[in-house]
Amino acid sequence: MKTYTGGCHCGKVRYEVIMDLKGGMACNCSHCNKKGFMLSFVPENQFKLLSGEKDLTEYRFNKKVIQHLFCKTCGVQSFGRGKGPDGSPVAMINLRCLDNVDLSKLPTTEYNGKDM
After folding, report:
1. Contact status, residue 77 vs residue 68, Cβ threshold 8 Å
2. Hey, where are the domains in the chain?
3. 11-25 per-position pLDDT tens digit
4. Which one, out of 5, 40, 44, 92, has a CA that is 20 to 30 A from the CA of 86?
5. What is the three-class DSSP state of 66?
6. pTM of the model as a whole
7. For residues 1 and 16, is the Cβ–Cβ distance under 8 A?
8. Chain-centre distance for alpha carbon 12
9. What is the DSSP pairing of strand 56-59 with strand 14-19?
10. Cα 23 from Cα 39, distance rounded (Å)
């Protein structure tokens, strides 16, 4: 486990996350696919928003259970909030928004969210 920092493009939204970064997930649903996300999920207690709570706005679609949060200023969605399969709170980390991580070195798992 390692602590990573990340955030949006303009820097208003900043966070830290404790995770074992072994790879990412690329989902082909209409939302993730269009935005080019590479995601990883962590228990909510491993995520800490450092700044920007007031700078976030949310978008919900489909079943409206995932908080797709993005910066009001720059529009970047660096993380989201939802529930895991067991109902526990999780943070969804957009790995593309982590500082100093070389994504080309991480394996990617494809997820068929389009047919969910």
Report:
1. yes
2. 2-115
3. 999 999 999 999 998
4. 5
5. coil
6. 0.90
7. no
8. 16
9. unpaired
10. 9
AA letter at 76: V
Is the pLDDT at 9 greater than 80? The verdict is yes
DSSP state of 71: E
Q: How far apart are CA 33 and CA 111, in angstroms?
A: 10
Under CATH, which architecture does the 2-115 domain have? Beta Complex (2.170)
Model confidence at 62: pLDDT above 90: no
Kindly report the three-state secondary structure assignment for every residue of 11-65: CCCEEEEEECCCCEEEECCHHHHHHCCCEEEEEHHHEEEEECHHHEEEECCCCCC
Distance CA 45, CA 62 (A): 26
- Give the integer Cα–Cα distance in Å for 21 and 55: 27
Beta-bridge partner residues of 31? none
Q: Whole-angstrom Cα distance, residue 13 to residue 69?
A: 10
User: Which residue, 23, 19, 3, is CA-closest to 104?
Assistant: 23
**Tokens representing residue 27 in the block:** 């989902």
Could you tell me the two tokens for 84?
């895991």
